[in-house]
Write a structure and sequence with these properties.
Keywords: DNA-binding, Transcription, Transcription regulation. The chain is an alpha+beta fold and 234 residues long. Helix 7 packs across helix 8 and helix 8 (189-196) crosses helix 9. It has 10 helices and 5 strands. The chain folds into 2 domains: 2-162, Beta-Lactamase, CATH 3.30.450; 174-228, Arc Repressor Mutant, subunit A (Orthogonal Bundle).
């Protein structure tokens, strides 16, 4: 199903159509809400989301970016963030969290920070209502899809904004491909090294080499870029 969605996404020609595709993604991913928000190097913003207009306006009026733990964490980190692992103990943050839940955002969330060219920053989020165990199972099962689709959405947004954003094809060695494939399949480094019959040190060399070729900020970013460019087959 995700493959069909990505094919449709690649045919998008306007930001309005991209917004429609982000809304449609809610059903594809089986979540309550999907949000894509981008800020380019000049400060211009674009958002496509499924939150209610009332909550969006409330968020803007109160300038909740100042205290939103999700936004603050994503500005500082590169790895995907599960909302449950953030600090919600501050009184103002608790009040904000209560308002968000009352507005139907959901008690669970998973956000992917994206750093693009020329200082672009974007955030891709899914949220919903579920127990901690069910949400942990969902994110563990779908993390590769979430990383992949977040970067495809961001790539399309950049393409529409700049006219084109074609990236020169990267060529990874077979061992670099194997190393990233193991990580994309949720193997940890010890498991990946064991599966490839190499040392963890050698695995690290392959990963760092691939990351350099992909101009990725970190390993997670490298996996996402390799997946979005069709360099890995999972």
């Amino acid at each position: 199903m995700l493959e069909s969605y990505i094919e449709q996404l690649q045919r998008v020609e306007t930001l309005g159509e991209l917004n429609d595709q982000v809304v449609a993604l809610r059903d594809t991913l089986d979540v309550e809400h999907v949000v894509y928000h981008s800020v380019n190097s000049t400060g211009e913003q674009y958002a496509a989301l499924t939150y209610s207009p009332e909550w969006v306006q409330r968020y803007l009026d109160e300038d909740y970016t100042r205290i939103d733990p999700v936004v603050q964490a994503c500005y500082r980190r590169f790895h995907p963030i599960d909302w449950k692992r953030l600090d919600w103990t501050n009184k103002n943050v608790r009040n904000f969290h209560g308002e968000a839940i009352d507005s139907g955002i959901g008690n669970q969330g998973f956000s992917v920070p994206i750093r693009g060219p020329s200082g672009q920053f974007a955030l891709f989020t899914v949220s919903g209502n579920a127990s901690d165990d069910k949400w942990a199972s969902y994110t563990q099962e779908h993390v590769r899809d979430l990383l992949l689709v977040s970067h495809f959405v961001n790539q399309k947004a950049l393409e529409l904004e700049r006219g084109t954003d074609q990236v020169q094809t990267v060529s990874l060695s077979p061992r670099e491909t194997d190393a990233l494939t193991m990580l994309a399949m949720s193997y940890n480094r010890a498991q990946a090294a064991d599966s490839l019959s190499i040392s963890e040190h050698t695995l690290r060399v392959y990963i760092e080499s691939a990351r350099f070729k992909l101009t990725a900020m970190n390993t997670t970013h490298a996996v996402a870029r390799a997946l979005s460019q069709g360099l890995l087959i999972i």
